[in-house]
Fold this sequence. Notes:
Blueprint: H1 2-19, E1 30-34, E2 38-47, E3 50-59, E4 65-75, E5 78-88, E6 93-101, E7 106-116, E8 189-190, E9 196-197, H2 205-208, E10 210-211, E11 221-225, E12 229-234, E13 246-249, E14 251-252
Parallel strand pairs: 10-12
Antiparallel strand pairs: 1-2, 2-3, 3-6, 4-5, 4-7, 8-14, 9-14, 11-12, 11-13
Amino acid sequence: MAMAAAVTLGFVIGGLNALTPRVALSASVSSAVSASKHAVTTSTTKVGGKSYLRVQVTSKYGTTKKFAVKQRVCVKSACRTVTSALSIKAGRTAWQGIYLGTATYKKSGVPSVSVTTPKPAPSASPRPTVTATIRVTETVTVTTVATVTATPTVTVTATPTATPTVTVTVTQAPGSEALCGAPANSYGFTFCGTGDGVPAPAENACDVFDCIDYFPNGRGYLVMCNDQMVSLSGGISGSCSSHNGVLRTIYRTAA
Length: 255
């Protein structure tokens, strides 16, 4: 009786397996690898003429883990292994899309998974505290202004000025008299009072002396004005009035 039941059960299981259709791998078929601490799913897809391998990992660890997932993919008869690396925090799910090419790729087999604990990031060394010492050097420039009051000493050396004694010797020409300072002339004009007064017209007087304007109009006798000009207005009122008055009378001696 027991053997008959076993044969019947085997027949039923075999019939179910015969009736279950086989699903061929394609670009849209995904596979999952489950473990007690993680679940990995891979699938191939084509978007916009480009093929990608999508790798999704769910971590059940209590700390961050690094997952390396390797999946073999094929296009026609050419196959290669693609590796995906994901670092996932505790209880999180992450995925990664890897570009394969423009051809239509298919998965071959199930992915292999390795799990490692990432090394902790090195702690940053504390930055040294730099203490800057600033030295200030003050330069003081002292400018001394000296005020000097000079009292000049003046030494005066007197140079005596000699007053020369001039001796004038008047030598009279033979047969003539001294002119008493009158200009030398051959007409006998003199400043000495020993001669005779010279009445108009007093010829040749302007050859010896500087005569005033209108000298020929004079009707007096010959005189010298204070400005050394001579006039024939001697003895007439207003003589030499325009020449500061009369200085002296001019005489004539016999030549």
